[in-house]
Specification:
Helix content is 52%, strand content 12%. With 293 residues, it is of the alpha/beta class. A 7-stranded mixed beta sheet has the order 1-7-6-5-2-3-4, with helices on both faces. α1 packs parallel to α3 and α2 runs antiparallel to α3. The longest helix is centred in the N-terminal third of the chain and has 23 residues. It starts with 5 loop residues before the first helix and ends with a strand.
Length: 293
């Protein structure tokens, strides 16, 4: 997926908010924006991928401010709030009469968790709205390949589950639990280092994912989405060995659509911005379960 014009304003807006979290020093905040403008002048082209620019933005912010995890406080709060809502979401999943019903409900809960993201212009969520979002998730499912994904999962032996945000990873455990109940071996992947509010090893522990999945690995890098040139050997070995990949969030959607995929990938996310919504031909603020290729 390539950038659209409004991606520039989003990158800048998010950088300003992130720099505010990263440092109280106004001079450093100014330097962040100054250097980011230089970066965009050089690299904001129609061929650019938004996730790649987001990675460069965050690395720039970390380098200038010396803060390697600006969203640390927000991530902690997200995990705490999500854990309180988890029993409600689990009850909704367990109300499914058949295995396929429970699988679909768990997919929907995982997709709803993807709303837990900060500083995307025009995207707002409150922790208090999560219960309503879970109840009504099916109404906003505009691309529904869950049936096809379920059939592939039934035939698989091992799957790789790529998590996205902190907080959200708590609800991912519901889908991993269903995959385990289907007899699958589940490898869960988190980021190797902090990047925006994406989940890391620490979040896999707090969320319970480390106990739910058979194995936790990291991408070995702090890139938004999947940057194949930066992935660790361990991650690539796991990625190449599995039968099916679950990829959560817009970052993975933005990057995986750039590759010729050799195995099925289930993209699960909320369209939190217009460019992503436009790419998939749907409205903004909708739920997507897309099987690729």
């Amino acid at each position: 997926m390539k950038v659209e014009a409004e991606c520039a304003s989003c990158i800048l807006s998010r950088a300003s908010a992130e720099a505010t979290e990263a440092t109280t020093n106004p001079a450093l905040r100014f330097r962040v924006m100054n250097e980011l403008l230089r970066l965009l002048h050089k690299e904001f082209r129609p061929t650019a991928v938004p996730a790649d620019l987001g990675t460069k933005r965050d690395r720039l912010i970390k380098r200038i401010t010396g803060n390697d995890d600006p969203y640390k406080r927000s991530k902690r709060t997200s995990n705490e709030k999500a854990l309180k809502v988890l029993p409600y979401a689990r009850k909704l999943v367990e109300e499914g009469y058949t295995q396929q019903d429970r699988f679909k409900k768990a997919c929907l809960c995982a997709i709803v968790g993807n709303i837990m993201e900060f500083d995307i212009p025009g995207h707002r969520f409150t922790f208090g709205s999560l219960r309503k979002e879970f109840r009504e998730a099916g109404k906003d499912l505009v691309i529904d390949d869950i049936g096809k994904i379920y059939e592939l999962a039934k035939k698989a032996r091992t799957v790789l589950y790529l998590t996205d945000n902190a907080g959200e990873i708590v609800f991912d455990t519901l889908l991993v639990e269903q995959l385990k109940n289907m007899g699958l071996n589940v490898i869960a992947g988190v980021k190797g280092e902090p990047i925006i509010n994406d989940a890391t090893l620490e979040d896999s522990e707090v969320s319970g994912m480390s106990k739910m999945a058979d194995k936790i690995i990291t991408t070995g890098t702090d890139a938004v989405g999947l940057a194949f040139k930066e992935l660790s050997a361990e991650f690539l070995d796991a990625y190449n060995s599995v039968d099916l990949v679950f990829a959560k969030g817009m970052g993975y959607a933005e990057t995986l659509t750039e590759y010729k995929l050799k195995k099925p990938h289930a993209l699960l996310f909320r369209t939190k911005c217009n460019p992503v919504a436009n790419f998939f031909g749907v409205a903004r603020g909708k739920n997507v379960a897309k099987l690729m290729p």
